[in-house]
């Protein structure tokens, strides 16, 4: 999986994921997914093709910790702006875990506290 960080117009952080592994995880072009903030990262959950988009948008309206998006026509999954800053992922080593071809977990790579081992 290819991961690229960038800043749109020098301000808005953007994380772009591409590659065969992304497609194998079920996140292919035009796949709709739900985004949820959690402790130190994000959870992306793939949604079914028969998801009622109007009902989903009504459910998520005004929710600051959940949203929805889709993989672009070109197969790029782009996370940008507040999702990266609020999750604490920006500029951190990432751990990406895929479960059951429908969910991806993005979190800060666990750092070992060297003092614990002294």
Question: What can you see in these coordinates?
Answer:
Strand 7 and strand 8 form a beta hairpin. The model is unreliable at 111-118 (pLDDT under 50). The protein has 3 helices and 8 strands; from the N terminus they run E-E-H-E-E-H-E-E-H-E-E. By secondary structure, it is of the alpha+beta class. It has one domain (2-117). 14% of the residues are buried. A 5-stranded antiparallel β-sheet has the order 5-3-4-8-7. It has a 3-stranded antiparallel β-sheet with strand order 1-2-6. It is globular, with a radius of gyration of 15 Å.
Give the arrangement of secondary structure elements.
Layout (H helix, E strand, L loop, with lengths): L1 E7 L3 E7 L1 H5 L7 E7 L2 E6 L6 H8 L5 E5 L6 E4 L1 H6 L6 E6 L3 E6 L10
Antiparallel strand pairs: 1-2, 2-6, 3-4, 3-5, 4-8, 7-8
The overall strand count is 8
- N to C succession of SSEs: EEHEEHEEHEE
Total individual domains: 1
Q: N- to C-terminal separation?
A: 37 Å
Spatial extent as radius of gyration? 15 Å
Largest sheet, order of strands side by side?
5-3-4-8-7
Q: What is the helix tally?
A: 3
- Mean pLDDT across all amino acids: 83
Pfam families: SymE_toxin
Protein name: Type I addiction module toxin, SymE family
InterPro entries: Toxin_SymE-like
Domain Toxin SymE-like: 68-99
